[in-house]
Design a protein that fits this description.
UDP-N-acetylmuramoyl-L-alanine:D-glutamate ligase, eight-stranded mixed beta sheet, alpha/beta
C-alpha cells in the first residue's frame, strides 16, 4: 500500500503523508495496552484510519493479514496476548506489511524485556518509545518508572541511533521535542503540550498513528509525520481545553480538523 519514498522532510512531504492516510484509510492492527484501547481506536478513526484490535494467540496471527500495518505495544501484557505477538509479527511481515514496535515500560519486568529483544529480530519498520524505553531496549539503561520516562531524548540520542542501525528501521523518541533517526539522518519534531502526558494512552496513540503513516509512506517520513500530527493536534487542543478531560476530547477533534495547509504553516523541524 505504500508509495515510493517521498522527498526529504519539509513543508510538502509531511502534509502529503497525512493526506494519504485520510485518502486511503489504512486498517491498523493494534496489539496495544488495554488501558488505552479506546483512545487508540478513536484517535485512528479521527485521523481517518481504521483500527483492528485482535490480540489472542488463536486469532491475531490469522487476522493480521487483513490489515495494512501492525502496531505491537507491550503496555499491558496478558499471557495469551504475549504468546500471540511473535507469530502475529511473523505473519504480518510475511505478508509484506510494515510494523511498529512500542516497547512500553520495557525494563520494568522480566517478560517484556526478553520479548522486546526477540521482536527486534523481526526488524520493525519503526521503534517508537520514550527516552527511558529506548535506552533500556538498547541495553543502556534500566527503563523509566513504568511507562514514565526519567530521561530526555537528548540522553537517548546515541542509543536511538544504535537501535536504528541494528534494526534497519527508524527510531522515534518522544519528548518535549521528538527525536527521529534512521541511524544516519536525524530530525527533531518541535511542538506539543504537557497535557499529552496527563491523558492515558497518548503514547500508544502515537504508535498507532505511526503505523497508519508507514502504511502509506516510507518509515522515515511516516514516523516524522505521525509525531508532527499528534504534536500539532495537541497544541490546538490545549488552546481550547482547560484540563485533561476536555483535552482528551479536543485532541480527537483536532486530529480530524487539522488541514494540510495548517500543518505546512506550523510544522517545525530542526
Amino acid at each position: 500500500m505504500r508509495e515510493p519514498d517521498l522527498p526529504e522532510p519539509g513543508l510538502v512531504a509531511i502534509p502529503a503523508v497525512i493526506a494519504a492516510v485520510r485518502e486511503r484509510a489504512p486498517l491498523v492492527h493494534c496489539i496495544t495496552a488495554t488501558v488505552s484501547m479506546a483512545l487508540v481506536a478513536d484517535g485512528l478513526l479521527a485521523a481517518g484510519a481504521r483500527p483492528m484490535m485482535t490480540e489472542t494467540a488463536a486469532e491475531a496471527p490469522a487476522m493480521t493479514g487483513l490489515a495494512d500495518a501492525l502496531l505491537v505495544n507491550l503496555g499491558t501484557l496478558s499471557t495469551d496476548g504475549a504468546q500471540g505477538i511473535s507469530p502475529t509479527v511473523a505473519r504480518s511481515t510475511a505478508a509484506g506489511h510494515p510494523w511498529v514496535l512500542d516497547p512500553a515500560a520495557v525494563g520494568a519486568g522480566p517478560v517484556r524485556g526478553a520479548l522486546a529483544q526477540e521482536l527486534l529480530g523481526h526488524r520493525p519498520d519503526v521503534i517508537r518509545g520514550n527516552a527511558s524505553e529506548i535506552l533500556a531496549l538498547a541495553g543502556r539503561g534500566r527503563g523509566g518508572r513504568g511507562a514514565d520516562s526519567v530521561d530526555t531524548p537528548a540522553q537517548a540520542r546515541e542509543a536511538a541511533r544504535d537501535l536504528a542501525s541494528r534494526s534497519g528501521g527508524v527510531v522515534a523518541v518522544s519528548g518535549p521535542a521528538d527525536l527521529v533517526t534512521d541511524g544516519a539522518r536525524e530530525v527533531h519534531v518541535n511542538g506539543g503540550t504537557p497535557l499529552l502526558t496527563r491523558v492515558t494512552g497518548t503514547g500508544c496513540l502515537l504508535g498507532a498513528l505511526t503505523a497508519a503513516c508507514v502504511a502509506v509512506a516510507d518509515p522515515w517520513h511516516g514516523a516524522i509525520a505521525a509525531a508532527a500530527w499528534l504534536a500539532l493536534a495537541g497544541e490546538q487542543a490545549a488552546a481550547a481545553a482547560p484540563g485533561p478531560g476536555s483535552f482528551r476530547v479536543a485532541l480527537l477533534d483536532e486530529l480530524d480538523a487539522l488541514t494540510a495547509a495548517e500543518i505546512a504553516a506550523r510544522l517545525e523541524l530542526t
